[in-house]
Amino acid sequence: MSGTTWTLTVAQFQLEYGLTLPSTTVCYRSWGTLNHARNNVMVICHPFTGSVDVEKWWGPLIGSGKAFDPKHYFIICANVLGSPFGTTSPLSIDSSTGRRYGPNFPSTTIRDDVRLHKLVLDHLGVTSVAVVVGGSMGGMTALEWPLCFPDLVRRIIPLATCAKQSAWCIAWGEAKRQIIYTDSAFRGGYYPRERPPKQGLAAARMVGLVTYRSSDSYEQRFGRKLDDPCSHVHYHHQQKGDDNTVCNTTKAQIVVDHAEHPRFSAQSYLHYKGATFATDFDANCYIHLTHKMDTHDITRGRVSVADVDEHTALSSVLRTLPPHPLIISISSDVLCPPHEQKILADGIPEAELVIIDSMAGHDGFLVESERIDAAVVRYLRHEFPEFYDD
Amino acid sequence: MSGTTWTLTVAQFQLEYGLTLPSTTVCYRSWGTLNHARNNVMVICHPFTGSVDVEKWWGPLIGSGKAFDPKHYFIICANVLGSPFGTTSPLSIDSSTGRRYGPNFPSTTIRDDVRLHKLVLDHLGVTSVAVVVGGSMGGMTALEWPLCFPDLVRRIIPLATCAKQSAWCIAWGEAKRQIIYTDSAFRGGYYPRERPPKQGLAAARMVGLVTYRSSDSYEQRFGRKLDDPCSHVHYHHQQKGDDNTVCNTTKAQIVVDHAEHPRFSAQSYLHYKGATFATDFDANCYIHLTHKMDTHDITRGRVSVADVDEHTALSSVLRTLPPHPLIISISSDVLCPPHEQKILADGIPEAELVIIDSMAGHDGFLVESERIDAAVVRYLRHEFPEFYDD
After folding, report:
1. Largest CA distance in chain B
2. Which of A260, A294, A360, B247 is surrounded by the most beta carbons within 10 Å?
3. Helix orientation angle between A338-347 and A310-318, rounded to the nearest 10 degrees
4. Which positions in chain A touch B262 (Cβ < 8 Å)?
5. Is A333 a catalytic residue?
6. Per-residue pLDDT for A142 more than 90?
7. Matching InterPro entries, A to Z (chains A, B) (predicted)?
């Protein structure tokens, strides 16, 4: 039942914006086995900073009896272009220069990811996808799958996502990029591997971390609690020596703690999470993916009449999506608020909208795993009784 | 009817956290005249990045027949400690070193501002304040006035504010500080006057600008509109020469625009506003004020029983505030959401809560001037008929 990670390399891959990537690698992970009809396929689309290791970010949903059950489905999750976790990205070597792409990695779109991942399905002999599921950026990808390949996908489950990237989210992306540009270690993206702009990436991640939750959830978790000075770490006044009681300063050295102000737990949380992220992720990849999300607009190039109004254009595209999707909202989501999923539910034929009442904010699509699991299991058993012969 | 700006210097000023500032200057502006009873006093408390120039940020509320009417009130607005607009701050000269305080400017609290501004009232012979009004950080100050001087203040009008800085806002403050620290020009706060960390300050401001509005307001204003390439400006591909048609690149050089991605109007808005702010404000002052707001907690040191629960502590302090305040909320405020003003309204005796239904977000307390003006005029005429002899 455990998954296996694979890579597939294609000789060249044409991008939506016109450029062609030579020798493109796609990393994917699969669980379970393809049935005889080759149609028990579940595609999981990962969010912004996720990877093919679904166990790491949607772990409670995967396993026997769960929403993502390899007993019933052949499950596949592929890494998107520009992500640092295995698929071709700014970290890959540009064969024309022999150096990493870095900031010269060409712009990609959600549709590029779908078309690239379709090559994986082709390689595996898949001719029909039962369901595509994804949250946040993964939800954008879930929406694009049947639009790019209309006869391939039977059902979709988009969570905490939108038909087009909103102005507010475009603004967040821009603010985060400007934060990274502020780090002089960024050097226009031409930073050496051993000296990446960790401080800027950590600060950008902190901004993300605040937007991913809600005011209520921060209040409940942290309130005005002060930090245990040794629980995370301070940049200044580091304790030194090999005494076992010293604070661990490795991660927190990326972020800076000035002066004598009281230190609140909410701050330490951001420091720790920001610094950890900056160690694991790559700044050029981060920037690339924020631009990719900005391109998300399911109506782009799909509406023939030039002067049609936005609402009509959106409706005309939504109605071409597979009927009876399960759409999941988190009530306190400020990034992709419930009314954006209501637009999806109003436009896609026979849609079911489940609003999960939670203070978890946007991250609710990851955090509220128990309620999401229950909704998805119920939905899948209803839509695909043929896969559940128990 | 136009205001006049003054300064008052006190020989020394003791701060709440123990340090004493020598020779402290407070900048204030006043409109109208003190009546014979010396009690027609209206104190306006400015928000985070505001100044005593109320005309600049609450202009539509000031004037004849308006909420802040110098015909009826002696109106005064004083600049807070640590703000770059006239009162002693990190920009001031530390007499012990002959250099600017910079990052060594001591921590101050909202209560320090109230006690310092009270010295201005003493200087002017004011013995009773009719009303204190303020939004956001100014609302924190409005709450602290009667708590610091219980017999002085008759009424308060706090807008878009809270009894204590929330964990979410603490997190925002921390993220913004980390952004500024990321700018190598910051140099731990010891930047020369001519080379301030403008890029970091602009990026921090951008984050603020996104939080000050709502997703809906960005959507309505910007949507997915692309930028007119000359309406603001690009860092790269600057046009040069003295041709009248060139773009103005001065401000936008602070922020960076990389590569060939589509440029959305929402991005240009942030670039322009961020860069303008970074030219007008000071990074050490910005950091100082975010820390000041983090200290805001009206229960601090005011509850005698150590183990009393938070809710009881808050109630016991709120009930000592002057009765019948006018409390104003903006329905879409994500920074100080309406439920925080509901806590105030539930705790302060005979409170009136007005929730303004608006998509303007936190900035609604500035933007929704017409509805705020109407509510405040009605309230003031009811509470202080003696000042309105027309």
Report:
1. 71
2. A294
3. 60
4. 294-295
5. yes
6. yes
7. AB_hydrolase_1, AB_hydrolase_fold, HAT_MetX-like
Name chain A contacts of B188, Cβ cutoff 8 Å.
Answer: 258
Decide if A161 contacts B178 (C-beta within 8 A): no
Helix H segments across A184-264? Answer: 198-211, 215-221
CATH classification code of A170-290: 1.10.1740.110
Compute the C-alpha angle B170/B171/B174, nearest 5°: 90
Say whether A222 and B264 touch across the interface (CB within 8 A): no
- Say which CATH architecture domain A4-165+302-387 belongs to: 3-Layer(aba) Sandwich (3.40)
Q: Rounded CA gap, B369 and B374, in Å?
A: 8
- Closest chain A CA to residue B257: A178
Distance from CA of A208 to the nearest CA of B (A): 10
Confidence class of residue A234 from pLDDT cuts 50, 70 and 90? very low
CA A302 to chain centre: 24
Q: Is the pLDDT of residue B246 over 80?
A: no
A24's enclosing H/E stretch is strand A20-31
Contact A136, A365 (CB under 8 A): yes
| DSSP symbols for A139-195 | HHHHHHHHHHSTTTEEEEEEES--SB--HHHHHHHHHHHHHHHHBGGGGGG---TTS
pLDDT tens column, B142-167: 999 999 999 999 999 999 999 999 99
Nearest alpha carbon to residue A223 among B220, B88, B164, B111: B164
What's chain A's Rg over C-alpha atoms? 22
- Structure-token pair, residue A347: 């436009």
- Lookup: tokens for B41: 């006093």
Sign of CA dihedral B26, B31, B36, B39: negative
Chain A, window 103-162: residues with a beta carbon less than 8 angstroms from a chain B beta carbon: 103, 107
* pLDDT value at residue B307: 61
Domain ranges within chain A, ordered by starting residue: 4-165+302-387, 170-290
pLDDT of amino acid A233: 39
Chain A: residue whose CA lies nearest to B109: A261
Name the class of domain B4-165+300-387. Answer: alpha beta
Tell me the per-residue pLDDT of A161-175, one tens digit each, with 9 for 90 and over.
Answer: 999 999 999 999 999
Contacts B219 to A, Cβ<8 Å: 166-168
CB B94 within 8 A of CB B101: yes
The residue type of B95 is: S
Chain A closest CA to B206's CA: distance in Å?
6
